[in-house]
TrEMBL record:
PROSITE patterns: CITRATE_SYNTHASE (PS00480). The active site is at residues 271, 318, 373. One of its GO terms (biological process) is carbohydrate metabolic process. Belongs to the citrate synthase family. This is Citrate synthase. InterPro entries: Citrate_synth-like_lrg_a-sub, Citrate_synth-like_sm_a-sub, Citrate_synthase, Citrate_synthase_AS, Citrate_synthase_euk, Citrate_synthase_sf. Gene3D superfamilies: Citrate Synthase, domain 1, Cytochrome P450-Terp, domain 2. SUPFAM superfamilies: Citrate synthase. One of its GO terms (cellular component) is mitochondrial matrix. Keywords: Transferase. Pfam families: Citrate_synt (PF00285). Signal peptide: none annotated.
């Protein structure tokens, strides 16, 4: 099939059968116990969700449908031979579990362009906010405005049978993914440029088009955007944005409602907003010493200053990873290839040497290593996207490619309303024998 929907139509019954079999024959398989520590510790380590697109190993990092980032870079079609994986290719892979060929990816590119038309009132909804509103607030508002055209909501009101929920969910998810770059680019141009919309280019792929609509046409920046969107798309199911989308979707809220909620979680500084915080932190280092070319001692002093004022070092640490994030590593490789002499890239490299031993010494940080957000800012800055408050919007566009497919599968597999059990503090004390 060159058409993604036809591919899904074939796959859905097969997957439904697998889930049915698991529920029927293995319902009581023990997946690990729940401890008090988990309940008070943000549910770390508690297996509680099924997520089809990707899984994170603490040491090795992300695998998209079983494939590491270097494997994806090798196997997935790029804009040119040997180019970075196209986000369309990742979308195809996450949804179907199959590696698409160039023809399939080109057909998906075209389909996304066809779906990309943004209703006028979505721009107006954004315009109702002051230009000073945070870009993520404007983005979430824009997504809520897009919800007006939800096919799922229409189908539900029309009494669609639950066995067909996944079909309008597919329509909504693809329309949402297709329209986000236009909404996101509008916000950028509204806040930082002349406010004029740069129309979609019918010859460009998804990542390149987003860069183009932002106002960037340097082929190297287009290539970085393809990589950026691909690696930020998915990071298994338990992170705040993905889990939020899944949770909200479980009440049969449509993909727009679920994704807007996910964006609001992504906008928190411990999650997606960390990319903004990293570049701001790096700029403050440069401001403090007057140059990015600083000594290890100066950098170490600055890190201690951050920690002593009760703040985290942004871009370091992770809820699951216990090693350097491969999403960091592939951005570093991109930088080594294209901007090895950039002073801020060199500073990022130095930070990677100095931060981990300091965090380790604190004795409480489970992972002192850099995560995805530690690197993206200096690359964007190098290519002229210097406005760090916008960075989380880029992350948000990418995340739709991870949560959209899962929402489709959630509906195809009839995943139920999510409703875990909570306990009161008194009950917890009683269970612990501490009261
Ligand atoms: N700087 C300073 N202290 C840190 C730290 C850091 N980078 N990372 C963890 N710690 C501290 C925690 O604040 C916590 O302190 P406390 O006991 O006094 O509250 C302690 O170490 C134990 O935390 P830990 O179990 O290692 O980490 P968590 O799973 O609770 O939290 C995050 C993980 C990512 C939230 C944490 O490492 C952090 O705040 N990092 C900085 C922000 C960041 O980069 N976020 C982006 C993460 C990710 F890549 C993404 O979602 O985009």
């Amino acid at each position: 099939n060159t058409d993604l929907y036809s591919e899904m139509k074939e796959l859905v019954p097969e997957y439904q059968e697998r889930v049915k079999k698991l529920k029927k024959d293995h319902a009581n398989v023990d997946l690990g116990k729940t401890t008090l520590d988990m309940v008070l510790g943000g549910m770390r380590g508690m297996t509680a969700l099924v997520w089809l697109g990707s899984a994170v190993d603490p040491d090795e990092g992300i695998r998209f449908r079983g494939m590491t980032i270097p494997e994806c870079q090798k196997a997935l079609p790029g804009a040119f031979p040997g180019g970075e994986p196209l986000p369309e290719a990742i979308l195809w892979l996450l949804l179907t579990g199959k590696i698409p060929n160039k023809e399939q990816v080109d057909s998906l590119s075209q389909e996304l362009r066809r779906r990309a038309k943004i209703p006028e009132y979505a721009y107006k909804a954004i315009d109702a906010l002051p230009v000073s509103a945070h870009p993520m607030t404007q983005f979430s508002t824009g997504v809520m405005a897009l919800q007006v055209e939800s096919e799922f909501q229409k189908a539900y009101e029309g009494g669609v049978h639950k066995s067909r929920y996944w079909e309008p969910t597919y329509e909504d998810s693809l329309n949402l993914i297709a329209r986000l770059p236009g909404i996101a680019a509008y916000i950028y141009r509204r806040i930082y440029k002349d406010g004029k919309i740069i129309p979609l280019d019918d010859t460009l792929d998804y990542g390149a088009n987003y860069a183009h609509m932002l106002g960037f046409d340097d082929p190297e920046m287009l290539e970085f955007m393809r990589l950026y969107i691909s690696i930020h798309s998915d990071h298994e199911g338990g992170n705040v944005s993905s889990h939020t989308a899944h949770l909200v979707g479980s009440s049969l809220s449509d993909p727009y409602l679920a994704f807007a909620a996910a964006l609001n979680g992504l906008a928190g500084p411990l999650h997606g907003l960390a990319n903004q915080e990293v570049l701001r932190w790096i700029r403050n280092v440069v401001k403090e010493f007057g140059t990015p070319n600083i000594s290890t001692e100066q950098l170490s002093d600055y890190i201690h200053k951050t920690l002593n004022s009760g703040q985290v070092v942004p871009g370091y640490g992770h809820g699951v990873l216990r090693n350097t994030d491969p999403r960091y590593t592939c951005q570093r490789e991109f930088a080594l290839k294209h901007l090895p002499n950039d002073p801020l890239f060199q500073l990022v490299s130095k930070i990677k040497e100095v931060v981990p031993p300091i965090l380790t010494k604190l004795g409480k940080v489970k992972s002192p290593w850099p995560n995805v957000d530690a690197h993206s800012g200096v690359l964007l800055n190098y290519y002229g996207l210097t406005e760090e408050n916008y960075y989380t919007v880029l992350f948000g566009v990418a995340r739709s490619i991870g949560v959209g497919p899962q929402l489709i599968w959630d509906r195809a597999l009839g995943m139920p309303l999510e409703r875990p059990k909570s306990v009161t503090l008194e009950k917890l004390e009683k269970l612990a024998g501490a009261s």
